[in-house]
Amino acid sequence: MTTLDIAHRDNAPDADLDALVRRVDPDRWLASRFIADPKARADVIALYAFNYELARVAGGVSNALMGEIRLTWWREAMEEIAAGQIARKHPAVQAVAAAGYPLSALAEMAQARVADLDDAPFETEGEVLAYVDATAGAVMMLAAWRLDAKADLHAVQDAARTYGLAGLWRLERAGVQRLPADWTQGDVRRRVDAARRKANAALKALPVAAFPAAAPAALAMAQTGGRELGALETQVRLTWAVATGRI
Q: What is the pTM of this model?
């Protein structure tokens, strides 16, 4: 097995990370357009590309062992950089390394994705929230940190839960059941709305410069409503969120 096989790199002709994220993670990509500083925007895009690489592992392997091998590749890539070694030759690895993200946090993101290799749904709300915090939560906190290193990262926790829960519901609609079997759409919407209300209180403490990291959560309630959002509606909701500081 070659390094290229293990990394499972993207085969798209355009390897540019911004173009990749625009294609595979349009919500976060659109929110990143509100980041004024080009370098900060590129660094946040690098994080989103790294997250995509981790998130797609489970869907690209035939068994859990292969998935663990690939996730180990990503975790060890971060650990090597932390140990002073040269970054592996993968665009997302090199970009997040250059951005200066805490490498231990990136390694933990890779480890958290091992949960994706288990086909069984989570059994409790606690398990769901722990997973969301370690995945969507880690992404949002690191993005907020990059946009303002002085930001209180706990201010985005509930916003991340809002968006993460909606994401799990969207997976459910696509046939991937991760939420507890007895959760209905109404149960998910109530939890998303409760998290959204808590988030709006907490986000008052988030610096304006860091808000684009949390902005995708403004889409969550609509995304759990049983329909897909169009590009224009998504852009309008994100613009409103950034303008008001609310999701």
A: 0.92
